[in-house]
Write a structure and sequence with these properties.
This protein is of the alpha+beta class. Helices cover 39% and strands 33% of the residues. It contains four helices and six strands; from the N terminus they run αααββαββββ. The chain has helices at residues 2-31, 42-60, 64-67, 89-100, and strands spanning 78-81, 84-87, 108-120, 123-133, 139-151, 154-164. It has a six-stranded mixed β-sheet with strand order 2-1-6-5-4-3, covered by helices on one side. Strand 5 (139-151) and strand 6 form a beta hairpin. The protein is globular, with a radius of gyration of 23 Å.
């Protein structure tokens, strides 16, 4: 009888723990909802916005190497555009060099419509629009989504999916 009572107490104890865990987890799951644009830390959002500002400044200075410092320097970096995915930091830099060299032909880059969603303390999703004004007054425009991670205390782009807006 004592063993049965002890088993019952343990069962109730484990149920209480599991129930408590569910109650504790509910607010965390709600905070990670990617549709909540206001989720996450304002400081983290500001840090990511600054990274994107630094990125455009590097582009507009014609400095692709500095521009690429915002990306994860890894063979696991992915960049998707035009229906193709480039893998690796060096391959992504090489692709940029192929499409936008020399620096005077890179044009002026700007971003707008930014939505920065901090999913967890060390991961974020960024949505936005990009605009490129080329030297011959041609415009290229599109949108992007970035997956970002905080690595060694710094936000880095680990995946970039950019699409060009096709004008009629």
């Amino acid at each position: 009888m004592i063993l049965r009572l002890r088993a019952m107490q343990l069962h109730i104890f484990f149920l209480a723990i599991v129930s408590g865990a569910v109650l504790v987890q509910a607010p965390v799951a709600a905070k990670q909802n990617p549709t909540d644009v206001n989720s996450g830390s304002k400081i983290e959002q500001q840090d990511i916005a600054k990274l994107l500002s630094d990125q455009t400044a590097a582009w507009n200075a014609g400095d692709l190497e500095q521009f690429m410092q915002t990306y994860w320097n890894s063979e696991h970096l992915t960049f998707s555009s035009g229906g193709k995915t480039t893998r690796g930091w060096q391959a992504t830099l090489d692709q940029y060099r192929k499409n936008y060299a020399p620096p005077k032909e890179m044009g002026k880059l700007s971003f707008d419509g930014l939505e920065i969603v901090v999913l967890e303390s060390e991961s974020a999703l960024v949505l936005g629009n990009w605009h490129l004004l080329l030297a011959n007054d041609q415009h290229k425009d599109g949108n992007f989504s970035l997956v970002m991670r905080k690595l060694a205390g710094q936000w880095k782009i680990i995946h970039d999916h950019s699409s060009k807006l096709e004008t009629p």
